[in-house]
Each structure stands twice: as C-alpha cells, then as structure tokens.
Write a structure and sequence with these properties.
The structure holds three protein chains of three kinds. Chain A has one domain (about 20-85): Alpha-Beta Plaits, CATH 3.30.70. Chain A is α+β, with helices and mostly antiparallel strands. Chain A has helices at about 35-40, 70-75; strands at about 20-25, 45, 60, 80-85. Chain A is built from two helices and four strands; from the N terminus they run βαββαβ. Chain B is built from ten helices and eight strands. By secondary structure, chain B is of the alpha/beta class. Chain B has helices at about 30-45, 65-70, 80-90, 105, 110-120, 165-170, 185-195, 210-215, 225-235, 265-285; strands at about 55, 70-75, 95-100, 125-130, 175-180, 200-205, 235, 250-260. Chain B has one domain (about 15-285): Rossmann fold, CATH 3.40.50.970. Chain B has an eight-stranded mixed beta sheet with strand order 2-1-3-4-6-5-8-7, with helices on both faces. By secondary structure, chain C is an alpha/beta fold. Chain C folds into two domains: about 10-195, Thiamin diphosphate (ThDP)-binding fold, Pyr/PP domains (Rossmann fold, 3-Layer(aba) Sandwich); about 275-380, 3-Layer(aba) Sandwich (Rossmann fold), CATH 3.40.50.920. Classes of the chains: A alpha+beta, B alpha/beta, C alpha/beta. Chains in contact: A-B, B-C. Chains B and C meet through strand 2, helix 3, helix 5 and helix 10 of B and helix 2, helix 3, helix 4 and strand 10 of C. Strand 2 (about 70-75) of chain B pairs parallel with strand 10 of chain C, so a sheet runs across the interface.
Amino acid sequence: MPERIRHAPLDLEKVKPAKAEIHLIKDECKGCGYCIEFCPKKVLEESDEINARGVHPPRIVDESKCIICSFCSAVCPDFAIFVVDKENKEGK
Amino acid sequence: MVQETVPVVVHPFSKYLRADMMPHIWCQGCGNGILLNCFVHALDELQTDLNKLVVVSGIGCIGRTAGYMNADSFHTTHGRALAFSTGVKLANPELEVVVISGDGDLFAIGGNHFIHAARRNIGIKVLCANNLNYGMTGGQQGPTTPLESVTTTSPYGNIEHPFNLVHLAAASGATYVARWTSLHVRQLTQSIKKMLQKEGFCFVEMLSPCPEIYGRYNKMRSGLEMMSWFKRASVVENFSDPSKAEITQEKIAVGEFVDIEKLSYEKMVHEKISKINEKAIEGVS
Amino acid sequence: MPKVKSGLTGVHFMNGDVACAEGAIAAGCRFFAGYPITPATEIAEHLSQRMPEFGGIYVQMEDEIASLAAVIGASYSGLKAMTATSGPGFSLMQENIGLAVMTEAPCVIVDVMRGGPSTGQPTLPGQQDVMQAKWGSHGDYGIIALTPSSVQEMFDLTVEAFNLSEAYRVPTLLMGDEIVGHMWEKVVIPSADKIKTVNRKKPNVPPEKYMPFKPDDDLVPPMACFGEGYHFHATGLTHNEHGYPRTSSSEVQSKLVNRLCDKIQKNADKIVRVEEVMLEDADVVVVAYGIVARAALSAIKKAREKGIKAGLLRLITLWPFPEERVAKVAKSAKTIVVAEMNCGQMVREVERAAKETPVVFLSKLGEEPHTPLEILEAIRRKR
C-alpha cells in the first residue's frame, strides 16, 4: 500500500471542502431502510426511536463521513431525507 | 437576542408536490415513491415550466401520482390515459404531457391505446412503474407477472408468458425506450430528463418493488429483499436487442434500448392543418 | 387561429350527417376524434376534410373508447370537442361518459341510432338507445340529450348541444337516427355572426384560490384548462371541491353526486325544449320524437281533417325529460299516443308523467318508421 502524501489543496482559499448537513424529516419516514442500506459510507443506521408512523427512522452515525452523494435522498420513496452542502450553500 | 422558532424542515422538492395531499398512500418500500422522486428531480434539473406540464395517470397505486404533483393533472379511467393524453397534446402541442401509469393500466386494459399512441409517435412521455402485478386491487396477476409467480389470481403459479415491455414499445414505434429498476435512481433520472427533451413518443419502464403484495407472495418479504434482487440480477445492456431484454430471477436487462429521431404526430398534424387553413383562407378572401 | 369565413352560409341541400358536422363547426368545435361506424361515418369523413380548413383537428382513434377519451382530453385543453358514433360505439363509450360527467367536461357525443341490439341493422333506423342515453353509464348522474327530426335540426341542435354542454359542463348527447342522418333536405345556414354560441365560464380568482369543482349558484363550477397556470387536479374518483379524491367520505359522495344530478334537474326549465302543435283543445295527443315525429305531424293533421281533436307534443329534449309539459298535456287530453321505433322506452317516462291519463303505445322496428296512417289508426281507435 503506497504511503499517502498528505498536503493541503492548492486552491483551499478559493474552494471550501464540502461539509454535509443531513436533514431527516423523521415523521415522513416509513422505515423501508433503503437510505441505510445503500449509503456508500454507512453514515446512517436504524435508530431506536419510534416515529409518528410506528417505525424506526434512520439515525446519523457520523455526519462527517458523508460525501454528499445524495443517494439516500434520491432513493427515498417518502421525501424524508435530503442532504445539503453546508459549506457551499448559496448565500453563505 | 431574537427568539427563534423551531425551523420546519422542508424538503427541497416540496414545491413540486401538493402539500395538502401529502403524505402519499404508498406502502413502506414501494417503488412508486422513488419514481415520483426521480421524476421531480428531473423536472428540477431541467427547470421545467410547471405551467406547461400536464401529468396524466391511469388507475392503480401509481395512478395516485397525478394527485400528488403540483401541476395540472388528470386521473383517467382505467387504461385510457394515453387516449386522453392524445386529445390533450393535439389540442395544445405546447403542453408537456407526461403519462405516469402502471403495467396493468398501460398494457392490459390499455394495451391497444399504448401501441397506437406509439405507432402514431405522438409526443407523450410515458413513465411505467412495472411492479409485476395489480397492486391496488390486492395483488392479482397482470401482463408482466413472471412465469410461475404466485399472485392472488394465480395461486398455483402464473402460467402466462409476460410481456417484454421494452420490446413492445420499440416494436410499436417509440423514439426513446429505456428500462431501469428503482435502484438505478441516477440513470432513471437521466433517462427521464432525456425523454422530456426528446421529440416523439418516449417510454421509460421502472421495475418497481411491491414488497407488501408481490414480494410477500414470492419470497421477497421486504423492499430490501426486492432491491437486492435488482442489485444482484441487473445488467446494463445499452442498445442491445430489446426483444432479448428479459426479466428473470437470474437476469434483469436494463439500459437504454432505443434512441432515434422521428417526426412527432402533433408536429405533422399541425403542419398539415396550417397549410390547409392558409389555403382555405386564401380561397375565401 | 385564423378563422375561415363559413363558406357554407346560405341555403343548401345536404344530408343529416353533413349538416351535423357543419353545425359543429359553426358552434366552434375545433376537435373531432372518432371511429367509423354506419350510419355516422359521414360525420367523420366530412369533418376530416372541413376541420383543418378552420384550423381544427381531426384524429381517427383506434376505437370508440379512445375517441371519447381524446375528446375529454381536448376539452380539458380548452377546445370544443365532439365525437360521433352509433349503437355499438355508444355502448363502448359509456364508461368515459361517466368520466366526462364526473369531471364535468363539456363535450358533444352524437349517436346516430340504428337497429339494435348488438350489431343489429347497421343501415336501418332505430330509437332503441334513448333510455341508454340517460342510464347507460354506471352511477347516478344528470345528462342532456337532444333529438333532431330533420336535417335542419341536425344542424341547429348540434349548435344547441355545444352551447348546453359549455353552459352546464356536461357531456351532451345528440340522439339522431339513421333516417335523419342519411336523408337529404334543405338546410339554411345563417352567417357566423347570427349563430349564438356559448363558452364555458372561466375562473375569476387567482390560481391559489381556485377550486376546480366549487360550483357557482347555478351549480356549475367555472372551468380552468390545462396550461393556464391553475395547477388543478381532476379525477374520476369521488372528489371534494379542490378536486382531491375523497373515497371514504359519505358526505363528499352525497354532496357531489346530488349536485351532478341537480345541475341538470334543477336547471331543467332552461334546458327543456319541445314543439307543441295544436295542443290547446286536443283530446288525443301524440308524443313522438326524431323521424317518427314527422309521420306523427302528418297523422294529426289528417285526424283534424276527420274532425278528431288531435295534437302533437314533439320532444326535442329527451333528457332531462320534459315531465312538466307532458303532465300539463295529460291533464287536458283524454288519451296520449306514444309512437317510438323501439319496444317501449320513452313511453315509460310519458306514463310516469301522465299519471291517470291512458297512454297508448305504438311500437315499430325495422326499415320504416310508423306511417302517418298507422298513427292515425291509433288516434282513431283510442279516442
């Protein structure tokens, strides 16, 4: 395994690295589990709480691992989750 | 310090949906919600003028989609969405007419209207949620139910060969034909975008999980199990022969199958009408 | 769209189907979807030629079910739309007539009646679909049906049908028959400015406030069309005033279905049309419609020559049924004779309205309608 050379990106002043902000609309979730199952970074897991529909909505394990691929948002049948890039949000 | 109220989290696609009709009636894990999500996503990326959009649906679980979209929408009688839409599109070709319906509505009772709409190449965009059975009425067999599947009207196993929808659409004359599963959300959104910008009759099939009924009867008791079938068996075969694009336990052929250029029916009709109309006015004045 | 001046203004000799087609154009119809069927095919053929001259659309759909579906679609896109058929096609259209009624889509459906049931006698007349006109689709609803007795009326009543369907947002039926459809007679077509046309009420509120099925005082809701920015929803499911499905509410169902029936019934006085001939002192009144009314007119004149006080009540509106007129006639007449080319359909409505007054029924099926002498015999015998 080659050793990783770590250095700061050359355009760090101009471009801010993305920072994920995951929004869960918990009471819309029907507990299908698609977002949890198909997240490439395993950022979500099933929570213990019960929402208004009587199911376990997802819970964010580690928001910093999220790469904002937004697959969870695209595959959710219930419009219960979406992800925003906090750092590069318009108006900021 | 200003007292802040708790912000209500609003989904970015809310403006495309009728707030007073949500949440939708679809089951846990149902693919219909994913189709609606991908459709709205495509509209958002294209910044489609919602004032020119007409969503027409047939009868079935997917038929409720028309009620959820925040656009002019119409929920027709069973199987007649394409015939109705033909009238809409011809009367006002500026409208973007999208038919969102199911396998039974479009291909059993609506089969005749489908092949003729495709034959005429009228510029209607068809999104088909193929969940392999008749979900709304409780899970009866349909024209796309795979052989040997158990449904409420085929308790001993279905012995009718299912339609190959992409083959049927291609053979009938559609200018754009694609099939994806509800797992292929990105590709599905791109196909929908392509379809909305294309001339002529376009057909996109989404293989959809119906975990509560079809899945339960056929050893896939949750949405996740049905999605894992899609993941395991899907093979992308762009522009392969649609007649060989099968859906079986072992293989689901997905991809874009047809992408051709053909003059649309409404263009032809209105060009002809213009010519005749002009001639008639000249004749009178 | 640029209009063509109606080149057909004037006096003409034409057949009933063509007169109906010209009536549609004069009324402002700019969309026709149909399927060939004897004896209504000429309407489609004539419109396939004339519609484009006026910038209108003719499309031949794959069957009658699709034809009516396309007509409803075009109506919702803002055009006045029509289809034409005969018995077998009329049966196929019933489900979509229900859709048109439920979604309150203005449209005109012409049924040039022929011998039935089933394939029957395609080239011969009949009046066997008249009850089906009211009760053909499942569910309770109100509908308007007009019946022409002459080629001139094939023109005039088609215009009237469009006007009624636009005013009341209801599918309006023109129940012709094979004879009136195929015979040739003189037709006077007025100039366009002399033909009265009615257009559907449009909303006068902004889109956020618009409720597509909220009626005005006349029980008819104003109608927005696709592409006007109203973002409304219409469905065949039982719906509330927003158009949203409410399939579990008894209250919504009761309110909606009763309004759909009342919309026609409570406005019946404005819709009903009849022709009254020599009724003031009549002892025997013949009630007839369509081609049979022509023979009936001749019969009552002959009866008068013989000293019998006979009169004719010609129904022009079959539905809503002119029950008040019939009841009024029944009070002064001693006998009512009903002549129809079927086994007894409108006669039941006449009996219901006539109450105690005896009603004689003359049935005839096949190639010819009743002859004036046949009706005269009935007048004489039952006086």
